[in-house]
Specification:
Helix 4 (73-90) crosses helix 8. The protein has one domain (2-207). It is globular and about 55 Å long. The protein contains 8 helices and no strands. Helices cover 62% and strands 0% of the residues. It has helices at residues 2-10, 26-32, 43-53, 73-90, 92-100, 106-134, 139-159, 171-201. The protein is mainly α.
Length: 216
């Protein structure tokens, strides 16, 4: 993530300003408020995408901040399944618009294309994980996939140091990171029916853009 944020900054491909530390000009928020759907899930992601659709520049600031992260695994799962990942699905139309918009940096187009690929491929990845786990004859492929993703993480692990101490993360962090990625794949898949239910059944994630949806 430390390498990634620097890379995104240089290539003008920052696609989400986290709600924990996001800073926006109030004049721009006032200008674009009518483009917002009024849906809370993924609100920080949506607000950033709206700015990018209007050709604004989003940058990272190298500044330490305090935030409140989930303190239990249950809270973490709930955050992903009911908030973050339904918000990701909610923004797929805007991501497609940004991907084909004229004047958008190439790296940002790729970022949007990758998000679209992730949304499409996650159910297939989840099915693969379940098959590999359930069938003893396939479990060797599970090791192959694990080692492949572990290899991707070795360079960042060698390069990145924890702020303040200058040390690498514990080795167990490196060894567990591919499993962390697989768990997130499962959670994104679980979030898809949550988004469909919230969007089309309860209407809690229905876009709200009309005067009747605004608070005076």
């Amino acid at each position: 993530m430390e390498i990634g944020k620097r890379f995104h900054d240089v290539t003008q491909s920052v696609s989400c300003v986290s709600g924990a530390i996001g800073l926006f000009r109030t004049s721009r928020l006032d200008r674009y408020h009518h483009q917002h759907t009024g849906v809370f899930q993924g609100e920080d992601f949506q607000r950033t995408i709206i700015h990018l659709l209007n050709m604004d520049r989003i940058v990272f600031a190298n500044q330490a901040v305090w935030t409140v992260a989930p303190s239990t695994i249950g809270e973490w799962v709930k955050q992903r399944v009911t908030g973050w990942y339904p918000g990701l699905y909610h923004q797929l139309p805007n991501e497609c618009r940004l991907m084909v918009r004229r004047g958008v940096p190439v790296r940002l187009r790729y970022e949007m294309a990758y998000n679209l690929y992730t949304a499409i491929s996650d159910p297939f990845k989840t099915w693969s994980i379940l098959v590999i786990t359930a069938l003893p004859a396939m479990r060797l492929w599970g090791l192959v996939v694990y080692l492949t993703y572990l290899a991707f993480e070795c360079y960042p692990y060698m390069v990145v140091r924890t702020p303040g101490s200058g040390r690498r993360a514990p080795l167990r962090v490196l060894l567990l990171y591919p499993i962390y990625g697989a768990v997130n794949t499962l959670l994104r898949t679980l979030a898809l029916p949550v988004w469909l239910w919230s969007r089309f059944v309860t209407g809690s994630m229905r876009p709200r853009r009309g005067p009747q949806d605004r608070i005076a």
